[in-house]
Amino acid sequence: MDVEAEIDRLPIDLLAHIFVLFTSFTDLAQASGVCKKWKQGVKESLARRHNLSFAGWKMDDDSTARLVFHAYNLTKLEIPRSCWGCQITDAGLLRISFAKCISNLTSISLWGLTGITDEGVVQLMNLCLPLQEVVQSWRPLFFGAVVM
User: Where is the F-box domain (predicted)?
Assistant: First the structure.
């Protein structure tokens, strides 16, 4: 007779609460590979997040879009260029613009990204209706006006 381990008895809701406390995407990825229940817990933890920062991570269009797609309640998104080189392009911004959270975003930081253009940022801004702040390059933008 198989005996269920104590940790396997944790409800997904509690697992998601625990995974919200994780700050490392590597740890989240490893946790999601443990079993189907933990994978669901990781997805739910992403859905609960209001802030998501990729600072210090080497991210590309695909991995960034995949994580943002699961973050339904996101209001603040940071995709700064890190020392490892964030490789986000206009194509990545386009993919992000189809995420469910896009209508909730009030702030997005694209600090120092070199693979994006004004056209990509404008396209994203047009879909982020409540957007109050965009930080691109070295100048923050508020409702399209440059603030020095």
Answer: 7-51
Indicate whether this model's pTM tops 0.90: no
Q: How many residues are recorded in the chain?
A: 148
Query: pLDDT category, 105, cuts 50, 70, 90?
Result: confident
Confidence of residue 58 (pLDDT cuts 50, 70, 90): confident
In order of 19, 135, 136, the CA distances from 140 in angstroms are: 32, 4, 6
- Mean pLDDT value across residues 95-121: 86
Question: Residue 77: in which H helix or E strand, if any?
Answer: strand 76-78
Give the residue among 68, 147, 78, 142 at the shortest CA–CA distance from 113.
78
Beta pairing partners, 133: 107
Q: For every residue of 32-61, which 3-state class applies, written as one string?
A: HCCCHHHHHHHHHHHHHCCEEECCCCCCEH
Integer-rounded Cα Rg, in Å, for the chain is: 17
Tell me: pLDDT of 74 over 60. Answer: yes
Helix extents (H) in 3-117? 12-20, 25-32, 36-48, 61-70, 90-96
